[in-house]
Amino acid sequence: MKEPFIHPLFIIHTLQQAGHEAYFVGGAVRDMILQRKVGDVDIATSARPDDVMSLFPKTIHVGIEHGTVVVLHEGEQYEVTTFRSEGEYADFRRPTSVQFISSLVEDLKRRDFTINAMAMNEKGEIIDPFNGREDLRNQLIRTVGNPEERFHEDALRMMRAVRFVSQLAFSISDKTKRAISEHGNLLKHVSVERITIEFEKLLLGKRPSLALALIADTKLYEHLPGLDIGEEAFRRLCKYDWMMLEDISECWTLLLYLLGVDLDPFLRKWKLANRQIKSVKLQLGGLEDVLKNGWSKETMYKLGEESSLRVNRILQLVRSTNYLHTTLLVSRYRELPIHSMKELAITGQDVMTWLNRKGGPWLSALLQTIEMKVLNGEIKNSKASIKEWIQSCKQILEERY
Ligand SMILES: Nc1ccn([C@@H]2O[C@H](COP(=O)(O)OP(=O)(O)OP(=O)(O)O)[C@@H](O)[C@H]2O)c(=O)n1
Ligand SMILES: [Mg+2]
């Protein structure tokens, strides 16, 4: 057994010593077999939530009604979930009832895809009743059993399917694909926040354009916020090499640029955080500036180094002639006389003293003028030079500001 399974092995052993069954399950087992970086290590057990809580000193009951207890062990958190079969799914997102059961295989049977329905015991042996390993070898996303049932249980699984296509660069079984084509409308029962999480993972995956093409084939885009734009328009998105992008804000910026829609209403539909919307807005503005006028000092300054690099990657992806080699862009950025107002050699207080005036809106307007003149090299960034400039045009300044 290798990391990251060694520490939580203690949890498995503790449960077993108390007479219960316990296994590693889900994404961690899949990623270990694929030799991918393993995310959260989840455990499934025959022990009931109460038993789990009594066996470990530090637990958090996150979703006891669904059988999940978080166990804190050596500074890490592990979800320990009681084997369960799920009852009726009246609302297409969560079961109206959960039945705790004693069979691992029954628990695996309620999971979404064969590659996610494997378990690993304490000896590192894989329990794989639905041939997940074979599908991993064949690089195939296939639901456990009937896809229609699985998607009616939780419609988000359709988005998970396309997200895994992107993250793993797998294909999808015909039957699973057909079920997505037929049941896309079930996505309306799923919260936007959950859809956004999957869509962002897709955009940051290994083969986003493969997954976007699958969304086009299945017409799933008709059920995604703001993306019911017709097949031809949606297919245009698949032509780009999204893989070149490194950060999710770059992906949203590119998407908005390609769609040419209003930024705020679109991103609000996806319920992005204000902070995220702000950085996409900044980048989209920068991108449009550079596409039109090339890289100016002002644009670099406004964007800052990190966002300049992001915009530059988008320029490369859309094959803009204004793309600059990264090292060149970085050196041009670093050569700017200032990188923020803080680096200006004077303060507002200096200006008030020199002009013998009280603060007010005039002051920030004047400081902005000075900021731009220093940035563009018209005034040297030193106290003396700025003072000299202010004094040389004192009269005009007093009229204008
Ligand atoms: N709608 C869902 C979500 C999850 N699962 C099951 O719960 C496991 C854990 O879910 P989650 O951590 O959300 O996904 P992972 O498959 O682990 O993917 P990731 O690596 O992104 O966490 C999955 O592997 C799958 O067995 C499911 O059947 N249906
Ligand atoms: Mg996981």
UniProtKB/TrEMBL annotation:
Keyword tags: ATP-binding, Magnesium, Metal-binding, Nucleotide-binding, Nucleotidyltransferase, RNA repair, RNA-binding, Transferase, tRNA processing
Enzyme Commission number(s) from the entry: 2.7.7.72
Binding site for Mg(2+): D40, D42
Enzyme class: transferase
Residues reported in the UniProt entry to bind CTP: G27, R30, R111, D154, R157, R160, R163
InterPro entries registered for this protein in UniProt: Bact_CCA-adding_enz_type3_sf, CCA-adding_enz_C, CCA-adding_enz_firmicutes, NT_sf, PolA_pol_head_dom, PolyA_RNA-bd
Essential cofactor(s): Mg(2+)
CCA-adding enzyme C-terminal domain sequence ranges: 245-390
Taxonomic superkingdom: Bacteria
Binding site for ATP: G27, R30, R111, D154, R157, R160, R163
Membership in a protein family: Belongs to the tRNA nucleotidyltransferase/poly(A) polymerase family. Bacterial CCA-adding enzyme type 3 subfamily.
PANTHER family: CCA TRNA NUCLEOTIDYLTRANSFERASE 1, MITOCHONDRIAL
Stated name of the protein: CCA-adding enzyme
Lineage of producing organism: Bacteria, Bacillati, Bacillota, Bacilli, Bacillales
Gene: cca
